[in-house]
Design goal:
seven-stranded mixed beta sheet; 2 helices; about 15% helix
Length: about 110
């Protein structure tokens, strides 16, 4: 079940990523050097140039391994993409450390 924050609710993580991609969040991000890098182009983005536009959290009804969160992130340069992390005890501390400095400006 999704706990949607933003403009649309999604039933699954895959639905969320697909829906966000259709809405222009076409890049996938990964954490590097205390910032983000686009997977496709390799462009490095600093946290001060980013904003979280929405996020969607998914909680597995019977399996804690199903817990995940997807962030829709936009840069001041217009790059839009998604970053997926586990939710709860399985979350990646590096992702949390980087996103701690990124403001949320939900649409």
């Amino acid at each position: 079940m999704a706990d949607a924050h933003g403009t649309a609710g999604y039933a699954t993580l895959a639905d969320a990523v697909e829906g966000l991609t259709r809405r222009g969040f076409t890049e996938s991000f990964r954490i590097v050097d205390n910032g983000l890098r686009t997977v496709r182009t390799g462009e490095a983005l600093r946290t001060e140039d980013l904003v979280i536009r929405e996020f969607h959290r998914f909680e597995g009804v019977s399996d804690p391994d199903d817990m995940a969160i997807v962030y829709a992130i936009e840069s001041t340069g217009g790059v839009q993409g998604t970053l997926v992390d586990a939710f709860g005890v399985y979350s990646d501390p590096a992702i949390g450390a980087v996103l701690h400095d990124v403001p949320m400006r939900l649409r």
